[in-house]
Structure formats: C-alpha cells, structure tokens
Design a protein that fits this description.
Glutaredoxin; 5-stranded mixed beta sheet; 4 helices; 25% helix
C-alpha cells in the first residue's frame, strides 16, 4: 500500500493518503464491503448502472453536510445512483440523513475496515477518515471521473462531476 503526503491538506497542513491510487480508466474495485445504515453489508459494485461515489470526512461538518445535500438535490434528476461514503458510524449516518431529509443519496460507512478508502487511495492516515472526493463509475464499472479535493475544507467541483454523469449516460 502506498503513502502519499501533500496531495490533500487540512487548513493548509499536508496530510498523508494511504492506499492504492486509482485513476480514470481503471475498473472500480469489486468486493469492497461497506456498512449500510441498517448495519447490513453493502457492495457498491453489486449495483448496476452509473454510480456517483462521493466521499466525505464526516457528515456532521458544514462542508460535508453541504456536499451531500447538493448531491441529494441533483440526484433526483440523474440517471445514476449516488452514494455518500464516510467513516462515520452507520447509526450517525442514519440520524444525519433523517435530520437532513436525504432521500436521493444512500449513505454508506467505511468505518470498520476502511476498505474503500484503502482501495481508492483516499484514506487520510492522520485522521483515520476518508478524503473529500467524487468518483463517477460508468455502467461497465470503469471510472470515468475522479476528483480528490486538494483542500479537505473545500467543496468538490459539482458541475464537472455532473457533466461526467451525463457523458456516461
């Protein structure tokens, strides 16, 4: 497993990403088991069609809250399933979704093994969280868009991600 320092920062301070760097054109890793809000195992690769996988450090922070809410608004008109992944416990995710009225985004937890974070190279070593990212996966399972947000307190490029979804349709 590789370690890369400085690709992302938190308030300007460099952080270390751990895991296998995956790029546009690569297949999305299969067999990554996450936890759904009901604690049942969930594998994103088992879902057919186009997928948007956006990761956030923690749903209970303002930028993460905004990011998932914006994807929730946009998801209603997309021809894609949208997943928000964090290392938050599934119970906290369910509570947050209920309070935020999230209906069009499925939240998944990587808290147990950080499997998705390690497979995508977005595991923030210092914080044991996932970096802020957006991946768009086409119906063949190929990554057609990848954004790792350089400053963890900044939002992703929503327009570019949505354009990638439209191109994959």
């Amino acid at each position: 497993m590789t370690k890369t320092t400085g690709k992302v920062t938190f308030m300007g301070n460099p952080l270390t990403l751990v895991g296998n760097e995956i790029k546009v054109g690569d297949k999305f890793p299969a067999g990554l088991v996450l936890s759904a809000n009901d604690l049942k195992p969930f594998n994103v690769s088992d879902v057919s069609g186009i997928k948007v996988i956006t990761t956030v450090p923690s749903l209970d922070t303002p930028v993460c809250d905004t990011q998932v809410r914006k994807f929730n608004e946009k998801a209603a008109g997309l021809k894609a399933r949208v997943f928000a992944v964090s290392a938050d416990l599934p119970f906290a995710q369910a509570r947050w979704c209920g309070a935020a009225g999230i209906k069009n985004v499925s939240t998944l937890s990587d808290h147990a093994q950080m499997a998705l974070a390690d497979a995508l190279g977005i595991h923030v070593k210092e914080l044991r969280l996932v970096a802020r990212t957006v991946f768009v996966v086409d119906s063949a399972g190929k990554i057609v868009y990848r954004e790792i947000v350089p400053e963890i307190t900044s939002e992703p490029n929503y327009e570019a991600a949505l354009a990638a979804v439209a191109s994959a349709s």
